[in-house]
Amino acid sequence: MRYSQGFKRSTVRKLLQPNPPTVQELSEDTGVSQQTLYNWLHQIKEDVEMSDYKRTPEEWSLSEKQEALITVAGLSPEEEGEWLRRNGLHSGHLTLWKKEIQDALKGISSPVSKQEIQKARKQIKALEKELKRKDKALAEVTSLLALKKKLEILFPDEDA
Hints:
single chain; mainly alpha; 3 domains; 71% helix
């Protein structure tokens, strides 16, 4: 059966999007064999434009979210609605992003006191010391086990 180029491209696009269906699932949904889907994927993978694929709001980076908020701030309510629809977003996303950026800025701007730094350094030093002690103990146990195996090989147990 001959399939249109548009059908092939849309099917391959489904395989290239984030969290795609498996080839087997897509094969069952479309009625196209798995091997044919693999062939299409290899033939037109580079040609398929993902420009009409809209990312989910969770896939936006923090800097992209900030740029979006700045862009939307200068728009009228009608233009904002159009921009949101064009980018596949809701006004609730903007509110969440604003809070997310504010929380990130609070984390950056909160100064760490010298006492907290000293306390953290002491804790790191103690943990490193404990780690060294445990590494030595592990090395000792490993060498004892190796020696025990060698001893069993050299002097097999005669009671067994």
